[in-house]
Amino acid sequence: MGAFTVKFGMESNYSDPEYKYIVIKVIGETGVVSDSLKGSDEDQTYIRNIMNPAISNALSVLSGEKISYRDLASHKERFSSAVTEALNARSITVTSFKLINIVPNDSSRKIIEQMDKMNAISRMTPEELARLQQEKLQEAQRVWDALSPEEKARVEAENKRRLEEDAERMKQTVEAAQKIVAASAGEAAVRAIPKFCPNCGTPTGGCGKFCSNCGTKLE
After folding, report:
1. Model pTM greater than 0.85?
2. Which CATH superfamily groups domain 2-104?
3. Which of 59, 99, 63 is nearest to 80 (CA)?
């Protein structure tokens, strides 16, 4: 009989009631006892492959109950029960379950921080927004004043390069739009040619600039 501890770390999608779709990182460790497993790397991988889907399923259930990601740690027993049930089904006994951390991963954390900032700004009064803008401008000025002449030159060169790239992309966009408009205008001109000569009534076939019979201009 083998008794050992399995450390695990996994990520799973989570539908948060406030932030919608984020990714939750779960880290912890589980003590297990098994008649057939001794704790080798292969054994631990086998157990993790059983636990991870159980933890994901528990997260899915909590998501359906509209539990905020902030409150997931308080539901440790739900995760412990899910893992215990999954391992017991494989004749593996759980002796301990420790949830070390359950938080959004780095990319989701940045999204949450950005959304929090946007929400905070949306609740500001016009006066508060004006004060915030002034503070940002003053901060930017302090940063600029602290730069050396060489650093300022590099910043100005980088800004110039970006402006030139933006101007070039805009130019390409305008040229592409002009080609589309010109092509559309040409098609419209072709479609505008009458099917019969307005002078002699000869069929034109919908093409050509002059009547093949009397020479009348068709456009």
Report:
1. no
2. Band 7 domain (3.30.479.30)
3. 99
